[in-house]
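Margin note: ligand = 5-O-phosphono-beta-D-ribofuranosylamine.
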Amino acid sequence: MTVKVGVLASGSGSNLQALLDADLGPAQVAVVIVNVAGAKALERAKAAGVDAVFIDHRGHGSREAFDQAVVDALVAHGVEWVVLAGFMRLVTKVFLGAFENRVVNIHPSLLPAFPGVKAQAQALAAGVKVTGCTVHLVDDGMDTGPVLAQVAVPVLPGDDEIKLSQRILQQEHRVLPRVVRALAEGRLVQDGPRRFHLELPGGVASLMSPAGLAS
Ligand code: GRF
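Resulting structure:
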């Protein structure tokens, strides 16, 4: 049976593209919602023949009103899982209440290190030698929800924000579709209040194979 997924994006949408190109098993991207006019994610959705909806957050009186409009569009498309793929807004309880433990986000660091914006620049400034990306369930904090999968990525001498971001993005594009597929296959297991894991045929290691030193 098809499991419908809604993707929310604000920018380039390369993670959206990875989802559109991947074999997601039972998961199907049913709608893409974008909150920034002209965002490339909108074009990518249209090119893939997926319903694309622009909802301008500035056109709503409150964050809750905006979230309600987004929830309404997701529900109208029969969405069961929501993926925040470069969606630059914090979601409210209106959103989380409608999709409890069914919203995932991808973030370009090994959380809880370097939450918020410019995670790659934060990693460079801190001088860490390993960073990466995290897929996590969304709660009402900023990048604070339970972690589902992480991939480590080396920080190399001579890296700048762009080079590091690109190396991390390569891994984001690998891991996000695998997580979405696993979620749609019902592989999410809760171990404790904030602890979850994905029960994968190849074990969690199959998500986490090291990025190596290739740039
Ligand atoms: C990614 O680095 C993602 O981790 C972060 O925002 C960026 C979005 O990139 N949340 P894109 O729009 O998917 O290309």
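The mean pLDDT is 94.
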